[in-house]
Design a protein that fits this description.
Blueprint: H1 6-10, H2 14-22, H3 31-42, H4 49-52, H5 58-63, H6 69-82, H7 87-111, H8 115-122, H9 125-158, H10 162-177, H11 184-209, H12 213-221, H13 228-241, H14 244-254, H15 263-299, H16 310-321, H17 323-356, H18 362-379, H19 383-409, H20 412-415, H21 422-446
Helix pairs in contact: 2-17, 6-13, 6-15, 6-19, 7-12, 7-13, 7-14, 7-15, 7-19, 8-17, 9-10, 9-17, 9-18, 9-19, 10-17, 10-18, 11-15, 11-17, 13-19, 13-21, 14-17, 14-19, 16-17, 17-18, 19-21
Length: 450
């Protein structure tokens, strides 16, 4: 028997039961929303917009990680230095993200457990501790990038010192996290609004930049790296786009959202969740592409290929596209940093409680994860370079999240009727191999083997 029953949850260790209660986001649903969700599950055919709405949300929270400040740093550098050349990496990363987030959501729906909890239940302690350590390092790298990005956004918009901007970021993220006490819907609404701000800002900026359509089509489908540093940027884009911490988080967001009474309902919930994923990650993919297009058409095309920092990009946009473009850029960066930093803290909570059964107050975790970013700011370390390196670190952590994800979703005794089909299983393992090969390429380039 798998772990997809409430009986398994009751028999779980106390710390894991606490996590299930914490991550049972369904407690925030109104009676009207629950009623509409149940009606959608009882229908046997087709979908309606009204029927899908109660199930939308988890993928939008996960998608925030795919448009975080790390993406700004890597995409700006890639576009400024290589023009449109690395567009295919963004497409590849987005396709991989859709596949992995689909598998992550499926775990929560099929088992009513999340990925760290399954690792806790099925893996020996000697495996869980290293997996937890890698996940925590990834969460710290993520939070460093996201917190720094929001601080830079405040700095650019309000013209305040970067350290003060970091303190403002801490206050703002505490306020957003406090919405959890009212259930998941208010939190999803705020994060969805911030994602909309990011998307709209880049839609306007992409229109203002007037990118070359022919170059877009060519480089989206023809793989090229452009140079030695293209390997680093390609791995950085992958690490910035396919985030390990939301592979863990998404499974927690779906595990108790709408409890299913039978396999048919689980399959229908999964069908709704796929819609959520395609919409949310489709928007995220557009934003990532627009970031690179903006840098390619504005910086690379005008001889500003040395634009390597977010601050320089902001300053350079003003003479090239006007004040509105630079203001929209900073606004999108701020929205990205605040939303993704909030999501990163939530993911860190899921990771610790799932792997080890430990639980600390979320405000305490927020304070702890703020510290590295504030130290980096106080020491005057280049924020953009820190962002890029943090994304490379995330890419190295990816296999440690992806391999267990594919393993569990391929086990019929755990997943039941939602177990991976052979094609999905082989695609997922193929993605794991691609990630490992890109990382090996980065190592070879770093140590001069290429």
């Amino acid at each position: 028997m798998g772990v997809g029953t409430r009986e398994n949850t009751r028999n779980a260790p106390p710390g894991v039961r606490a996590l299930t209660a914490m991550s049972g986001w369904g407690s925030g649903m109104s009676e009207r929303t629950v009623s509409q969700a149940r009606k959608s599950l009882t229908h046997t055919r087709g979908f309606s917009l009204r029927g899908v709405l109660p199930f939308l949300g988890p993928a939008f929270i996960a998608a925030v990680a795919y448009v975080d400040p790390g993406n700004f740093a890597t995409n700006i550098q890639a576009g400024a230095e290589y023009g449109y050349t690395l567009l295919w990496v963004i497409l590849l990363a987005n396709v991989i993200a859709i596949l992995l987030q689909t598998l992550s959501a499926k775990i929560g729906i099929a088992t009513e457990r999340n990925l760290p909890q399954l690792a806790h239940d099925y893996f020996p302690q000697w495996m869980n501790v290293p997996l937890w350590i890698v996940a925590e390092v990834a969460a710290m790298a993520t939070d460093l990038a996201e917190f720094l990005g929001a601080a830079i956004g405040f700095n650019l918009l309000l013209h305040v010192p970067l350290f003060l901007a970091g303190l403002l970021t801490g206050v703002a993220t505490f306020a957003i996290l406090a919405l959890q006490r009212f259930g998941f819907r208010p939190l999803e609404a705020v994060i969805g609004l911030l994602v909309a701000v990011i998307a709209c800002s880049y839609l306007v900026e992409a229109f203002m930049a007037r990118p070359d359509g022919g170059q877009i089509v060519y480089h989206t489908f023809i793989p090229q790296l452009g140079g030695a540093s293209g390997v680093v940027l390609a791995v950085g884009i992958l690490g910035a786009t396919v985030m390990p911490h939301v592979i863990y988080l998404h499974s927690a967001l779906t595990q108790s959202r709408i409890p299913a009474h039978n396999l048919r309902e689980k399959r229908r919930i999964f069908a709704f969740e796929r819609i959520d994923i395609w919409v949310a990650l489709g928007i995220a993919g557009f934003v990532n592409g627009a970031m690179l297009l903006l840098a390619a058409s504005v910086f690379h095309a005008t001889g500003h290929s040395d634009v390597a920092t977010i601050e320089t990009a902001y300053q350079t946009l003003t003479p090239l596209l006007g004040n509105a473009a630079s203001w929209l850029f900073a606004l999108a960066l701020l929205a990205s940093g605040l939303s993704s930093s909030t999501v990163g803290t939530m993911a860190g909570q899921v990771v610790m409680e799932g792997f080890l059964g430990w639980r600390i107050p979320i405000w305490a975790r927020r304070l702890i994860t703020m510290a590295p970013a504030l130290i980096v700011i106080a020491l005057g370390v280049d924020p953009t370079q820190t962002l890029v390196l943090s994304q490379v670190a995330l890419s190295f952590a990816l296999p440690f999240a992806v391999a267990p994800l594919v393993y569990f979703t391929s086990r019929k005794d755990i997943m039941g009727g939602l177990v991976n089909k052979p094609v999905t299983r082989w695609l997922a393992w193929g993605v794991t191999v691609i990630i490992v090969m890109l990382n090996l390429g980065l190592l070879a380039q770093t140590f001069g083997w290429l």
